[in-house]
Specification:
The chain contains twelve helices and twelve strands. The protein is of the alpha/beta class. About 3% of the residues have low confidence. The structure holds beta-D-glucopyranose.
């Protein structure tokens, strides 16, 4: 009786064992795509600050890949200053199974299409540099923002001028009339950094006790060329009355410096924000009074760390403090001839 049972059971057991063996082999030979795919959508491929940040981001990902062997594909896509184009790029990235999207919105008040599409596909989004409004950021718990605190950038930019003035008032109030005549060049009007930097830098100068007179000001959209053209207009109109050129970013400060050079003027009271390599070089060369590092490398690192954690089911808060408003803010500092001594 027992013998007969074994006669039936043994072949069945063998078949089962072979089936298990084959299925394990199958699983092992199946190609496993372990590459982490990050889709990075920039508002414009022509922006100097963003380009510097992207160079850092690619270097950080390449280094990580080298150190760990984890394959990381960072695709940087240009939205060409069109929110509609960016929305289409999001659709494309989602259809190509990107793990995380890193989005530098074109229009920071119009994040709805990006968010809705990403949420439907369950793909987390790390926004950066152009801050979505809070009601949008709070729409889903897989949305984050990486950027610099614009108020702090403005306070630091003002401190460059305040320090120079305290050390040698005549270096800023060049005509010695007790009032600093200034011109301000602003970034894009809808950008949070433009609004806050403009207001807070001027207010901080006033709060320090400095008397100010605004001669003129205009929007140069973060652009070196536009700033150079506006500066030419202002220097032609106001000449030596201008004692300070306050710029919302380094590229515009560099545009002013280009005009100063072209017109053969002796003028160096130009302040910027960003600490791009070109901005720092202009400070080193004495063409600019100073700039503020808003940490493009630190921002790139934070974007990478958050995106990597989200792509691998890790904890985004492991390496960075995530604030109540779902943002990660980077460290900033002043860059002047003094701080470089
Ligand atoms: C930077 C600018 C840059 C802009 C782009 C700002 O935070 O200071 O240089 O053009 O972001 O969004």
């Amino acid at each position: 009786m027992k013998k007969n049972l074994w006669k039936i059971l043994l072949p069945l057991l063998l078949i089962a064992l072979i089936a298990v063996f084959l299925s394990t082999c199958d699983a092992q030979t199946e190609p496993v795509d372990d590459t982490i795919k990050l889709g990075v959508l920039v508002y414009s491929g022509d922006d100097t600050f963003i380009s510097n940040m992207m160079t850092s981001l690619k270097a950080i990902a390449a280094q990580y890949e080298q150190d760990t062997g984890v394959r990381i594909n960072v695709s940087i896509l240009d939205s060409k200053e069109s929110q509609a184009t960016q929305n289409d790029l999001v659709t494309r990235c989602l259809s190509l199974d990107y793990d995380v999207l890193c989005v530098n919105l074109v229009d920071r008040t119009d994040a709805a299409r990006v968010i809705d599409q990403a949420r439907d596909a369950d793909v987390p989004v790390v926004f950066f540099n152009r801050e979505p409004v809070q009601s949008d950021l709070k729409k889903w718990d897989k949305l984050y923002y990486v950027g610099a605190d614009a108020r702090e950038s403005a306070l630091l930019e003002a401190s460059i001028i305040i320090n120079a003035y305290r050390k040698d008032p005549g270096s800023i109030d060049m005509n010695d009339d007790g009032v600093v005549q200034y011109v301000i060049l602003e970034g894009e009007s809808r950008h949070q950094d433009t609004v806050i930097r403009t207001e807070v830098s001027v207010q901080t100068l006033r709060d320090s006790g400095m008397k100010l007179e605004k001669l003129d000001g205009g929007i140069a959209n973060w652009s070196r060329n536009q700033a150079a053209a506006l500066a030419e207009k202002y220097f032609t109109q106001y000449g030596e009355q201008i004692e300070l050129m306050l710029c919302n970013n380094d590229d515009m400060a560099l545009g002013v410096a280009d005009t100063v050079e072209r017109l053969g003027l002796d003028f160096h009271n130009i302040a910027g924000i960003d600490a791009t390599p070109a901005g720092m070089a202009a400070v080193d060369a004495g063409k600019m009074l100073g700039t503020v590092s808003i940490g493009y490398e630190g921002q790139a690192q934070a974007i990478f760390d958050l995106a990597y954690a989200l792509a691998t089911n890790g904890d985004p808060a492991e390496k960075h403090t995530i604030r109540e408003d779902r943002s990660v803010r980077v460290t900033q500092y002043v860059y002047t001839a003094e701080t470089q001594k």
